[in-house]
Design a protein that fits this description.
GO terms for molecular function: UTP:glucose-1-phosphate uridylyltransferase activity. Keywords: Nucleotidyltransferase, Transferase. By secondary structure, this protein is α/β, with parallel strands linked by helices. It is built from eleven helices and 13 strands. The protein has one domain: Spore Coat Polysaccharide Biosynthesis Protein SpsA, Chain A (Alpha-Beta Complex). The protein has a nine-stranded mixed sheet with strand order 5-4-1-6-11-8-12-10-9. The longest helix is centred in the C-terminal third of the chain and has 15 residues.
């Protein structure tokens, strides 16, 4: 099978998880809708896709995820109230989310892992390459990781994954890549992938980030992939197959990301992400930083 060289225009965002690490906040509210300053986390992810030139976004959802659809839909009553009040600032913020992208939705049904969630996107994606963005990783817009990954895909074909260097003792928390250097300092060729390996068995300290640019050949591989760790269909296992057998639709390359990333899947990192982003906001930063300095001084 030859790799597809078509231009990428579609993004897939898996959003069917239960968000149990944030209970009870996520008992009735999707974790993707938890605010990061004054926007839900999922909006940052959609904005990233659109900025990278992917205006067609498919969200893979599950039960109790209706607020995601409502957020990216029009709210005519609220818009009219703000319009009547002459509050153009808030009106533009409300309209922004509904004008961001062409949004589509599909339900995953059974929670059978990330690989299964990606496979649910096959009817929408078809035989075109596409991007997958996981909502727990927020990438700072000043560090255009996804744009770089698309460039690498256009150069090498196949699939591209995002990687980051982590302390070796932490590699068991991530999917891990065995990789060889290429002629470009931030690009490696992936030869093997292991999902959450034991530290002593990890082939490197390169961890997989929640960004992928995938050849449509991954769908055929996923259909033949048996459930792996946790009884789930792992995307990592399918990519491992493509890396080992490039003739199926490979190769697999990795972009080693050294920019700013905010992890909203962990409670502590979620709070740190809010503080960092609030400090950098022109409208909030100056006052917030002054308060934060005083707070830290008092606590020391």
């Amino acid at each position: 099978m030859t790799t597809s060289r078509a231009r990428i225009s579609k993004a897939v965002i898996p959003a069917a998880g239960l968000g149990t690490r944030f209970l009870p906040a996520t008992k009735a509210t999707p974790k993707e809708m938890l605010p990061v300053v004054d926007k839900p986390a999922i909006q940052y992810v959609v904005e990233e896709a659109v900025t990278a030139g992917l205006p067609d976004v498919l969200m893979v959802t599950g039960r109790n995820k209706r607020p995601l659809e409502d957020h990216f839909d029009r709210n005519y009553e609220l818009e009219q109230v703000l319009r009547d009040k002459g509050d153009e600032t808030k009106l533009s913020r409300v309209e922004e989310s509904s004008d961001l992208a062409t949004m589509h939705y599909v339900r995953q049904g059974d929670p059978r892992g990330l690989g299964h969630a990606v496979l649910c996107a096959a009817p929408h994606v078809g035989d075109q390459p596409f991007a997958v963005l996981l909502g727990d990783d927020l990438i700072d817009p000043r560090d255009p990781l996804l744009t770089r990954m698309i460039e690498v895909r256009e150069e090498f074909g196949g699939s591209v994954i995002a990687l980051m260097e982590v302390p070796r003792e932490s590699i068991h928390l991530y999917g891990c890549a065995a990789a060889a250097p290429t002629g470009e300092p931030d690009v490696v060729q992936v030869s093997d992938l292991v999902e959450k390996p034991r530290v002593e068995e990890a082939p490197s300290n390169l961890a997989i980030l929640g960004r992928y640019v995938l050849d449509p050949a991954v769908f055929d591989v996923l259909r033949k992939t048996d459930p792996g760790r946790g009884g789930e269909i792992q995307l990592t296992d399918a990519l491992q197959t493509l890396a080992a057998e490039p003739s199926l639709g490979g190769p697999v390359h990795g972009v080693v990301f050294r920019g700013r990333r905010y992890d909203t899947g962990d409670r502590g990192d979620y709070l740190r992400a809010i503080v960092r982003l609030a400090c950098e906001r022109e409208d909030l930063g100056p006052d917030f930083r002054d308060w934060l300095r005083g707070f830290v001084t008092e606590e020391m």
